[in-house]
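Hi R.,

Here's the chain you asked about this morning:
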Amino acid sequence: MTCPLCGCRRFYLKDPDDRFETYPFELIDGEVRFDAEVEVPDTPDVDKKTETFCEQCAWHGPLQEMGEK
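And here is the predicted structure, written out as tokens:
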């Protein structure tokens, strides 16, 4: 899965309670795989409507808008 604008495979989520806290991840086979330093129990719930941010460009939107590559 890739960014619909730039094709990047790296993304992040923002913590809904702390706008400065982010959770980087990759989408592999449609599955969110957080980076090793992310404590998964601390992450927000993720579904296809979760607002997601590309690490490379200005794109952000629901997870369901990602393109497959």
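One quick note: The chain has a mean pLDDT of 88.

Cheers,
M.
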